[in-house]
Amino acid sequence: MTPDDIRAIRQKYGWSPAMLGRVLGYRSNSTVGRIESGKEKMSASSVRLLTLLDECAATRVYCVDKWGAARPRGRPRGQ
């Protein structure tokens, strides 16, 4: 997955770099920016997670809550 692919997926769902970083488990808000600029590579597990999120979102609408958890939109937390 290229840096442009990562940026395209993030922008397709309206995620900020910080939001995507939280979903992928990065501690630094600047990590996604470094990945998108090609200065750093994503781990294989992060690439797989981003790919799965993109595939799932193609069939269901997901949102990312303030804790960085992806869940179906409209579904109350904890249910």
Quick rundown:
The protein is built from 4 helices and 2 strands. It has 79 residues and is mainly alpha-helical.
Could you name the ranges where pLDDT drops below 50 across 5 or more consecutive residues?
none
Q: In total, how many beta strands?
A: 2
* Proportion of helical residues: 40-55%
Proportion of beta-strand residues:
5-15%
Instruction: Write the element-wise H/E pattern from the N-terminal end onward.
Output: HHHHEE
Number of helices: 4
Oligomer: single chain
Largest sheet: 2 strands, antiparallel
Question: Based on CA inertia axes, which overall geometry fits?
Answer: globular
Name the average pLDDT.
80
Structural class: mainly alpha
Describe the protein.
The chain is built from four helices and two strands; from the N terminus they run ααααββ. It has helices at residues 3-12, 17-24, 31-36, 44-57, and strands at 62-64, 70-72. Strands 1-2 form a two-stranded antiparallel ribbon. It starts with a helix and ends in a 7-residue tail after the last strand. The relative contact order is 0.16. The model has no long low-confidence stretch (mean pLDDT 80).
